[in-house]
């Protein structure tokens, strides 16, 4: 098992077979919480955090360990930083259990057609699971401690508790609870925990930390600030609000590394079992919850950290004054592209991204002698429609970036599932596509590809595939939107067949994308046309038609 104190499987390999190809060493740096100059508390520890931010922390710690003799090196000028994981939700218990059992060590496998690399990461030095804390103060106190100088987040779109207009949803059950919990009970949400910690820091004369969002959201730092200030406004504490405005920071970031979800040991998942076997073969490690990711990684960060930050630029991060061009490129091409192919590919019978992207891999629903798989062609057409809304990015050729995305999506060693990409569409499509569609329409450019994405998403939301099989819908608004989707397609009792909608789904568009898009007639008409095409023929036929745009 993967343990730092007494790791039988690893200790034997490291001690006796140090030159063996299938041996991955343990991190060669001090990991006690007290050994670090600064602590980053991370809310929402999952696969992506462990493959991305934690890897940057790990690589910097390795570099610092190798350069301890060079006291003047600028890496040391910013000090040593470690991570503490914080779990606030019941589903964080599995991660807590796996991490604590392995002394917060875990394995990251980087895979692409050229190579497979294994790394044992030790950047996380502790994990706090708030629901187990009877006092209700352990997580808050960890954030309030003077050693904590950055609080980072990967809580997905729904974790910010914002409405479609980007304002705090005070009707959200977690937010409602926490507005009262600050009077004594443990806060449950990320924003409630952050605000309570900031309140304590102000009372104790401790500076405000930076809130570092690492979620795929446009203006993720700006949204984090709106979340915190919206909570403070609802709380009605004017003094704390002013203090936070003057002292806290909410840097925007762009994060990128494709990381499929894995499951812990004991949860049935053949894919995850295969990754555990690969860990044993590649690294000599028995890891209960390893991470697999592509080798490519990118991180662009606004340099706004009131209490200091790690020297991540030494290990590949890019610090800039304005993240906006980078995040627009990534959100409107990579993230939007992922969502764009997820629904149509699933509906025509694919289950993995690389399978859907293989032009020679015809759909399982295709007729004998059918043309090649149209998904790649559709993605190219979608990219072409999105490109005019992507601002110039310093040092990046957008056309080359799109070609690279096709290669990354086609990586056969990642086996990313289409269902993972299809999750939370009610939030992903808003953050990655809505504004681009409005921008195109405002410039007089047609949006047929966006319209087909919306139409395939609505078809997917019916919960019935094109052979009558059930689709598991994972979305915070799943029940509500499935009901609306079935009404749009005329699915009686949730059964096939579907029928073309007689009217444009204005109420659906308004509910998901807001009034501005629902009032944009060119977009509304295009969505209605795409829905009609799918219902009148099939998703595969519509995909082939639109891929020719």
In short:
Helix 6 packs across helix 8, helix 8 crosses helix 9 and helix 18 packs across helix 19. The strands form 3 sheets. The protein has a 5-stranded parallel β-sheet, sandwiched between helices. Strands 4-3-9 form a 3-stranded mixed β-sheet, sandwiched between helices. The protein has a 3-stranded mixed β-sheet with strand order 8-10-11, covered by helices on one side. With 549 residues, the protein is of the alpha/beta class.
Structural commentary:
The protein is α/β, with parallel strands linked by helices and 549 residues long. It is built from 23 helices and eleven strands. It has a five-stranded parallel sheet, with helices on both faces. It has a three-stranded mixed sheet with strand order 4-3-9, with helices on both faces. Strands 8-10-11 form a three-stranded mixed sheet, covered by helices on one side. Strand 3 and strand 4 (115-121) form a beta hairpin. The chain starts with 7 loop residues before the first helix and ends with a helix. Mean pLDDT is 90; it is low at 5-21.
């Amino acid at each position: 098992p993967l343990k730092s104190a007494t790791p039988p499987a690893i200790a034997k390999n490291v001690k006796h077979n140090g030159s063996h190809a299938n041996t991955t060493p343990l991190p060669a740096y001090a990991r006690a919480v007290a050994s670090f100059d600064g602590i980053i508390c991370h809310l929402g520890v999952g696969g992506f955090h462990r493959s991305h931010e934690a890897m940057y922390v790990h690589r910097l710690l390795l570099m610092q360990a190798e350069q301890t003799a060079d006291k003047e090196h600028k890496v040391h000028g910013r000090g040593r930083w470690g991570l503490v994981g914080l779990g606030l939700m019941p589903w964080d218990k599995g991660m807590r259990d796996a991490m604590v059992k392995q002394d917060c060590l875990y394995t990251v496998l980087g895979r692409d057609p050229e190579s497979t690399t294994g790394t044992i990461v030790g950047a996380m030095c502790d994990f706090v699971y708030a629901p187990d804390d009877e006092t209700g103060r352990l997580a808050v106190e960890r954030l309030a401690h003077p050693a904590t100088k950055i609080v980072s987040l990967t809580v997905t779109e729904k974790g910010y508790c914002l409405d479609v207009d980007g304002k705090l949803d005070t009707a959200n059950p977690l937010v409602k609870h926490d507005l009262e919990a600050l009077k004594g009970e443990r806060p449950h949400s990320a924003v409630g925990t952050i605000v309570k910690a900031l309140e304590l820091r102000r009372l104790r004369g401790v500076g405000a930390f930076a809130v570092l969002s690492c979620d795929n959201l446009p203006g993720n730092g700006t949204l984090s600030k709106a979340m915190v200030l919206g909570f403070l406004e609802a709380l009605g504490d004017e003094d704390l609000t002013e203090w936070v405005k003057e002292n806290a920071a909410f840097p925007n970031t762009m994060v990128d590394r494709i990381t499929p979800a894995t499951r812990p040991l004991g949860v049935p998942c053949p894919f995850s079992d295969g990754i555990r076997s690969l860990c044993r073969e590649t690294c000599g490690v028995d890891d209960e919850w390893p991470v697999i990711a592509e080798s490519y990684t990118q991180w662009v960060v606004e340099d706004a950290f009131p209490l200091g930050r790690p020297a991540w630029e030494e290990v590949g991060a890019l610090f800039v004054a304005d993240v906006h061009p980078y995040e627009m490129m990534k959100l409107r091409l990579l993230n939007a592209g992922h969502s764009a192919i997820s629904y149509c590919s699933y509906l025509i019978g694919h289950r993995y991204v690389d399978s859907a992207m293989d032009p020679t891999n015809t759909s399982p629903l295709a007729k004998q002698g059918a043309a090649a798989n149209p998904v790649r062609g559709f993605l190219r057409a979608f990219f072409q429609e999105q490109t005019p809304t992507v601002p110039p990015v310093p040092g990046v050729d957008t056309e080359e970036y799109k070609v690279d995305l096709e290669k990354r999506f086609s990586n056969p060693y990642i086996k990313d599932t289409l269902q993972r990409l299809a999750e939370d569409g009610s939030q992903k499509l808003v953050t990655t596509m809505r504004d681009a569609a409005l921008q195109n329409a405002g410039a007089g450019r047609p949006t047929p590809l966006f319209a087909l994405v919306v139409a395939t998403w609505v078809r997917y939301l019916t919960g019935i595939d094109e052979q009558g099989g059930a689709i598991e819908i994972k979305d915070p608004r799943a029940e509500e939107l499935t009901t609306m989707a079935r009404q749009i397609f005329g699915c009686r009792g949730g059964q096939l067949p579907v029928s073309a909608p007689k009217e444009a789904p204005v109420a659906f568009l308004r509910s998901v994308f807001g009034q501005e898009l629902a009032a944009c007639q060119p977009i509304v008409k295009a969505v209605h046309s795409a829905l009609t095409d799918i219902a009148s023929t099939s998703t595969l036929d519509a995909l082939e038609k639109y891929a020719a745009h």
